[in-house]
Amino acid sequence: xxxxxxxxxxxxxxxxxxxxxxxxxxxxxxxxxxxxxxxxxxxxxxxxxxxxxxxxxxxxxxxxxxxxxxxxxxxxxxxxxxxx
Length: 84
Fold this sequence. Notes:
- The protein is mainly β.
- The chain is built from 1 helix and 5 strands.
- It has one helix at 44-48, and strands spanning 7-12, 15-24, 52-53, 56-65, 79-83.
- Strand 1 (7-12) and strand 2 (15-24) form a beta hairpin.
- The protein is globular, with a radius of gyration of 16 Å.
- The relative contact order is 0.36.
- The model has no long low-confidence stretch (mean pLDDT 89).
């Protein structure tokens, strides 16, 4: 789990991305999308027990396209990961 914490950059199809920082977990998964009412504190309560960084729950990574690349990502594109 959380292998993305060790990634340096990612290539998807012809596009290359650099990881910029950990992504803070939002509360959207705890809200019932039909009613707009918070239905639970999970999974945030569990994640807070072991995924806190600077008092924020971390779940995944933010990344940006490297250089001045533009392109299209498609289902089925090959994904290559360069770990630290």
